[in-house]
Amino acid sequence: MPDVDRRRAWLLTVDGAPQSYVDLDEPAHLEFEYARRLGHVLDRATPEGRALDVLHLGGGACTLARYVAATRPGSRQHVVDADRALLDLVAEHLPLPEGADISVHSADARTWLAGAPDRSADVLVADVFGGSRVPAHLTTEAYAREADRVLRPGGTYAANLADGAPFAFLRSQLATFGAVFAHLALIAEPGVLRGRRFGNAVLVASHRELDVAELARRTACDAFPARVEHGDGLRRFIGDARPVTDADAVPSPEPPGGSFSVG
Questions:
Q1: Contact, 181 vs 151, CB < 8 A?
Q2: 3-state helix, strand, coil in the chain (%, to 5)
Q3: What are the φ/ψ torsions at residue 168 (nearest 5 degrees)?
Q4: Which uninterrupted H or E stretch holds 234?
Q5: CATH C-level class of 13-238
Q6: What is the pTM for the complete model shown?
Q7: Is residue 243 reached through a cis peptide bond, with omega within 30 degrees of 0 on the bond before it?
Q8: Which of 225, 240, 147, 144 is nearest to 191 (CA)?
Q9: What pLDDT digit, counting tens, does each position of 38-74 carry?
Q10: Angle, in degrees to the nearest 10, between helices 63-71 and 33-43
Q11: Where are the domains of the chain?
């Protein structure tokens, strides 16, 4: 259940793991570092302030949808989450901003994506975890091609993933999206990329060249600085990993005990 402090800031946990943080008084505040990195990607999707059409796969407390509504007024957003009980809880305790064009849907992310119109989104944000693992059916080349179909030309795909050394899952995801999109980037803390610990990594994919210099500048200035891998460095990281098919897909690895727990 969520806890609230005097600032009307809510931390939502699921099975002891932090799932969402929402500040009702400051919706542009992103507490979690991976959310801040996704926020940086959203900021660079088009010129700042311009309204966006955004599809969020994985809703939680709609933290990023609230962020987009605050930073890009007039944006049209769809939030998809399979957990109806969670969505009902959020609707009761954390109402969406008045006037925000945010539609919330209780559905399986890939099923809903398959029915979404062609070229209907500027940005697709994927932050879907079953427990602490990314479901297998959201890791495949067929899924990546559905995301590409729904995105407008030059649109951006961004996903929150989690892995640790030797990065079999993360490398396979980069290979999968690299088979569909022309440009890739990976944002993560240096300690995670060096294999020192299990952690979050944000995958970014697009057919347009990504503004990696600005993403690197912004992520380096965060409280927990991150590094942006791209180009030859990213190709070396991917190595001989192959795209994932529906037949061989597996969920992301189980995090080591305590990786994402809160005290």
A1: no
A2: 30, 25, 40
A3: -60, -40
A4: helix 231-238
A5: alpha beta
A6: 0.92
A7: no
A8: 225
A9: 999 999 999 988 999 999 999 889 999 999 999 999 9
A10: 40
A11: 13-238
